[in-house]
C-alpha cells in the first residue's frame, strides 16, 4: 500500500515536472497574492530562470519598472522594483512614463542593461532611456536618455543577434517608421540607424532570428485597442524585408506583441509569443498572454490557446487535456 502511494506520488511529481500548463486570460499573482505588474515585458533567460522586466501599471500613468523571475513562466517572484519614478534618478521626474522596458545582458562587460521608452505625458518627448546595473537585481543607474541619434522614438524593443550584436528597435518620427539602431559593444548607446517600413506606421516591434532568417512582428498604432499583427522576414536586418503580411486573427487574439521566447529543448525548439491584453478591463489588470508561434521558411503562424502545455525539457508543446480546462470542468 505504502509502496503504491509512494510510486503514485512520484509519478505525479514526474508528470508535474515534465509538463507545465500555461493558462491565459487570468491576472498573474505572486505567491504573496499580489498582482504581477510587468506589462509590455522584456525577458532574459539566465541560470535556469526567466527574468522579466515590465511596466508597473498599478500607478497607471506613471509606471515604474519591476523585475520578476520564474522557472516556468507561470509562477513569478518579485525580485525588486528596478526603476522608480522620482527616486532612481532626479532626472526621472514624477511626470515621466517608462514604457516597454527591455532587459539585456552584455557578454563583454557582464553588466545588465535596460532600454525603454522614456516619455512625457502627451508623448511629445519621444525619447528613449538606458539603465545599467552590475547584477540582474542590482541598483540600476540611468546612463543616458534622449532621442537616439536625434531621432524621435516611441514604442520599442531590443534584439540580440547570435553574434552578441545588440539592436534597439523603435517606432520613429511621430509613429511613421520603424528605426533599427545598432548598439555599441557595451550596449549603452546607439551607433547607427536604419529606417525600416517607411511611412507604414507600425509599433510594438519584436524581432526573432530563426535559423538565420529574421522575422519582425509588429502592430498598427491604435493605442490600447488591439489590431492585426503583421510580420515580415529578411535574411539581413538592414535591408531586404518582405512586405508586411497578416498573422493571427484581426486583433491578434486581443493582444499586442511584447516578445518572442525561444524554448530550445532536447527534442525541438518551440517559440512562444508574449503579448499584452491591455485594459482588460483596466490598465492595472492588463493580462500577459502566451501562446506558441511557429516559423517555417518565410512564413509564420500563431497557435493561440486559452490553455496549453509545454515541456521545457524537450521543447514540445501540446493542447491541454480537456479535463484540465478549469472553466469547462466547472
Ligand atoms: C500603444 C503602445 C503602448 C502605449 C499605448 C498608450 O499604442 O503600444 O506601449 O504607449 O499606446 O496609449
Q: What features would you highlight for this structure?
A:
330 residues; mainly beta; Tachylectin-2, Chain A; 4-stranded antiparallel β-sheet; 2 helices; 23 strands; globular; disordered N terminus; binds beta-D-galactopyranose
The count of strands amounts to: 23
From the coordinates shown, what is the CATH architecture? 5 Propeller
Reported for the largest beta sheet, the result is: 4 strands, antiparallel
CATH class: Mainly Beta
Task: Describe the protein.
Helices cover 6% and strands 48% of the residues. The strands form six sheets. The chain has a four-stranded antiparallel β-sheet with strand order 2-3-4-5, with no helix packed on it. It has a four-stranded antiparallel β-sheet with strand order 6-7-8-9, with no helix packed on it. A four-stranded antiparallel β-sheet has the order 10-11-12-13, with no helix packed on it. The chain has one domain: Tachylectin-2, Chain A (5 Propeller), CATH 2.115.10.20. The two termini are 32 Å apart. By secondary structure, the chain is mostly beta strands. A hairpin with a 2-residue loop joins strand 14 (202-210) and strand 15. The protein contains two helices and 23 strands. The structure holds beta-D-galactopyranose. Beta-D-galactopyranose binds at residues 40, 99-100, 155, 203-204, 221, 223-224, 256.
